[in-house]
TrEMBL record:
A Pfam family per the record: FAD_binding_2
Gene3D superfamilies hit by this protein: FAD/NAD(P)-binding domain, Fumarate reductase/succinate dehydrogenase flavoprotein-like, C-terminal domain, Succinate dehydrogenase/fumarate reductase flavoprotein, catalytic domain
Similarity section: Belongs to the FAD-dependent oxidoreductase 2 family. NadB subfamily.
Keywords: FAD, Flavoprotein, Oxidoreductase, Pyridine nucleotide biosynthesis
Organism of derivation: Halomonas nitroreducens
Protein name: L-aspartate oxidase
Amino acid sequence: MTDSKHEVLIIGGGIAGLVLALEVADRRRVTLLQPARDEQGASRWAQGGIAAVLSPQDDVEAHVADTLVAGDGLCDEAAVRFTVEQGPAAIGWLLSLGVPFTPDPDPQAGYPYHLTREGGHGARRIIHADDATGRAVVETLMAHVQAHPAITLRTDLTAIGLIGDSAGHCRGARCLDEDGQLHRLLAADTVLATGGASGLYRHTTSPRPASGEGMMMAAELGAELMNLEFQQFHPTCLYDPEGSPFLISEAVRGEGGLLLNAQGERFMPRVDSRAELAPRDVVARAIDAEMQRTGTDHVHLDIRHLGEAAIRHHFPTIHAHCAARGLDIAHMPIPVVPAAHYSCGGVTTNLEGTTTVPRLHAIGEVACTGLHGANRMASNSLLECLAFARSCGRRLRHAPPAGDAPLVAWQSGRRPIPRQEIAALRDEMRRIMSARVAIVRRDAGLDEAASVLADLAARLAPRLPEAAPDVELASLWHALRLARLTVACARARRESRGLHFNPDCPVHGDPSPQPSRIHLGALAGG
């Protein structure tokens, strides 16, 4: 095992991690971990854009109000207002870096860049780079990160756990290199930007979804987790059982896309007055119910009426990707199905990304800031990455010196656990989570999930002390425990709210609902 010392260690190289690195690096040296396997993380696949108040016809109060409605009574209004107010300056900063947002060719437009509209928004406020915003932002930020002399980018290391000391502070991370060798990166300040937990489910909108590894690494040091039961399922993932996951952006519906059932009939108008532009939780449940009613495994998203020129102009990436799979979306509807997409819960933080563990911060999807409440509104996620990464950066630029309490000892064995066994356990976890803890949950199903997951954990736990350090094994162990905590939160919420829908308690409960707060100690045996 090798030891090295670092000032600021950022684990995760998506938009949140890249923004933070650039914010801090003018004052402190930064080490940024972006394993090669994570290059296709969630940020790069974000299509729709970034929500911000940019148009003269829009205002902060309207964006705040729309977010509070989408969050179904569980948003932290202070976090919502803070995030929304940061939007215009954050977009201005990205423009100064050269992000190629799509211009608006209309000389009468009140803003020089095209703004689209997505579900839950009462105005056009989504700035985008065609339909590949995440890729454009990541590539621009990465170019600046690679050119900065105070940022060291490591693509050869994967974090498998955090290092704590006897004072309860975070002191860095344990990592494995590509040869399986252990490295201890000691850091004055550590920041998690590791993404969410959609990988707990079988069908997702990302080819390499995170499985909550960062959340559980924080929980192992005693950090509080919050709102784990609110897992968002994007309503429209391309239905292609033989192909890799591919998201069909919310902006497709924002520009007039219509959802049709197997008979070619619209069904959203009878579900919600906002029809296809209702918030994601409403649309995903409606699609799920329509599939159950008609006995089909997908529905259709139809944009043929927009015309081929408009489709190619607004959605070049989606058009090209579907064409490569034999779908001409200008002349045929797109088969779509809901898929696990975004974790509204995560590591509890304040407005500066501070967790309940000293010297440990969390930003992006791994964090739970209170912005999203019980349901994330479209395109608020990249806005959250920007707002909280910049806020966290301002704090870390002036952080006091770290302590020097003794480090907590950590032991590992040398006996490898076969990869096929790890894969089988992960498949079983994803099966039960998808079957019992997805868009609609019932008490009996949650009880079954709790039992199955506890059994899987009990089969693995006794072997860990002798097991050789392994990235896949660490990921599975983190995922299993997070799945169990997610089920515990879902069982405890005796109401239906936002993304948590349980027909056994179908109505809202407390008119002033509280977030679900939980620690690793809630699990017997940890």
